[in-house]
Fold this protein.
Amino acid sequence: MPVSELVLVIMGLLTVAMLAASLCRNLPIPYTVFLVMIGMSMSALSAKIPALSVLQECQLIPDLVFFIFLPALIFESALTLDARQLLKDVAPIFVLAVPALVISTLLIGVGIWFYMGLDPILALLFGALIAATDPVAVVALFKELGAPTRLTTLVEGESLFNDATAIVVFHILLGIALAWFLARFQRARLSQGVQRDIAGILCGEAVMKNLRLRAGLEPSDVDKVVDIYQRRVGRKRKRVDEIRGDFPEIFATLEARLTQTAALASAHNHTPMSFHHGNIGAKAFSRIERLLNSAKDRIPAITNPNAGVDPVELIEQIPLFDGLSSDAISALAARAQTVTFFMGDIVIGQNEKGNALYIIMYGIVDVFQDDNGAKTRVGTLSRGEFFGEVALLGDEVRTATVTAKTSLTLLRVTRRTVLSLAEKHADIAERLEHAHSQRR
């Protein structure tokens, strides 16, 4: 929607809200409830009345919420809040805004994890997203009904301060979730790619076998189709062989998972048939089902590869960490994450904000710089080399794009990890301070 039309729609809606405020004075309905009723009515009418059809195109984009609606709500509450009453009730407001919000986030996250089976970190992230209260409608009702000033101050003050707590908790959980999601996404992408290629090989072999046995087909046409499938199967076999050579540990685990899953699936299919035919009794059937479900839960998960390299040795080679104590190096290695990339993947992009250092455990990367559209390769890095170390010293912008030239396994050390360990290890803090002073 063009900006001019968006402004007109917002002005029209604000005009309707002002008219509703004057009408609501003579009606036994709270103003906020009356606004909701008007909004629902306008939404229903917009599908039938052409003049209101523009409302269906209007969407609440983030900029509209952050720069139009949110400042008006927050600043209005901050300006009208009684500062003296706020200072008197600062203790209960602080308890509601900080510890209570953290507890609310935990309760929501645990509930979603328990009842919906969502991953704990994602459940907590959702909890932090919705835990902060927004009592605009409640405060409006308090003012209309003449509620006690202390009650209004408690609710409104808690709403103002818990937003800051929610933002901090959300960003902490978001950083953890992004690091967790990157590693998990790459493993899932790798395993699903192998499974698709294996399925493609099996289907291609079956098609070629059945085509040759099928009667009534022209031999020349059959040869053409078989040739196409042979090339396709050959490409898939090549990809599977490359992944087996590049990520042997992941491939071995995936191979074991596929074999065990296929065997358990076959057993699940044959057990009910044996029970219905009377070959096994009800108790044996129930016991077999429990054993099969238990065996399914014990199938080994796909873990991060280590590429046969000790993370401690890799971290010791970084100039920023050279000479640190063995405890500090071991702590960094324990908190570092292993991530994988395929050939052609972009690891980091130029002009992006950096937040992590990458050390190459296996593979080769190309480094490119973009100068007004002209892309130039400025270097190639291989096993044991690193890039992105400046990101550990601050929110720096990446100066180059790094692309995987081959299948890649990287050791990722985030800035958040280094800063958290600097609070426990004085030598890390000193090293960071020295690096900052040299850059000034």
User: Anything to note?
Assistant: The radius of gyration is 31 Å. The domain at 311-439 is CATH 2.60.120.10 (Jelly Rolls). The longest strand covers residues 374-381. The chain has a mean pLDDT of 80.
